Amino acid sequence: MVTTHKIAVSLYDHDFMLVAIRCNLKGYSLAYHINKAAGLRLTRAEMDLSFNGLDFPIFEWNDTLYDRYYALVANVAKKEQTLQPTDLFSEVSGERTHYLVKERKLFDYFLKIESEDQSVLPTLVAALNSIDKVATAQQMEANSLKSKKNLIF
Questions:
Q1: 24 lies in a domain?
Q2: What residue numbers bound the domain in which 117 lies?
Q3: For each successive 10 residues of the chain (153 residues), what is the average pLDDT?
């Protein structure tokens, strides 16, 4: 007789708040501006988020005073690929864009906040929108995303 074990879905159920950010800054520059505008202390994580052979940079801060965890993760990763030649010319190289959350391709970064206190979100979004280089920052419902599991790290 074979025993079947099932893993409960609730084991992987993580609740977090999510802010979607659209801007043309590099990750380190955006982290600097967020630290300055919102009073956070985001620093580059030792390891990037590796997903399907792509690396998405992460900037994080564990606020032990208020028991909050912040993680700024890029939604875009670009990978150079060599394309097959179709004519007399030799190999042609090109850059291909991949997304961590494919259904939200318009956004460049996501700020993930793990906290029991949701009152921090409106002031954080307002601080992000006050940054000149940020086109838009808005709260996003993480449970509505099909790729929510990509943001669990």
A1: yes
A2: 14-151
A3: 54 75 95 96 91 88 94 87 62 75 90 91 95 94 77 74
